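**Folding the chain**
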Amino acid sequence: ALSPVKLVTTITKQVQEWKQLYPHIQSPEQLPILANMAKLGASLPETTVQKLHNWADGKTSLRQLARHLNRDILTVAKAIYPYVQQGWLQLIYSDTFKPSKPEPSTESKQYKGRIVCIEDTLVICETIESILKLQGYEAISITNPLQALGLVFQLRPDLILCDITMPELDGYEICAMLRHSTAFRLIPIIMLTGKDGFIDRVRARMVGATDYLTKPFTDQELLMLIEQYLSPDY
């Protein structure tokens, strides 16, 4: 078994390699489909093209493909990356990974929007969820920062709450990567932190954060900030 130090080093290296594939490859749950068979046929051996034709059917995820090929997911992702970058292969999400926004119920509070909270402390996630759901928001928590990017692209929230201090991938990095995507260039991203320092605020702004909320915060402070950025006038 790997020692703790070697394990952390290995995980850190893998995280860095996944970051290099972003935003072209965002999640192991994405499904490859052929977008330009002619270009692929002219650039790759026939056997490779045939394999792609068999597997890139829009029904098989990168995770499943890696399992079928008995390869590591990252190895498979790196192998197809140049062709995704060229636009010859496209990666889509299955409908099962795209939760549809619920219809507002006439009996419940009016649906106000979908909010994703990226926070590795479960208690904080549960507290935020309960506050928001009582006010008519759909609240979804993500406690694993390494899964956050892929899930956020699947969920397409109206606003994102993101903790700054998390293991392996911090909130600054997540915010910066989301801002590189046109889909999230204008989505409000509010950073959560236990510190209230000037440098933290400046750094949050530099990576594209919309605002900043210091923990612990009251229900009212959280709701006022969210309503400010989800109001029709924003």
Q: What stands out?
A: The mean pLDDT is 82.
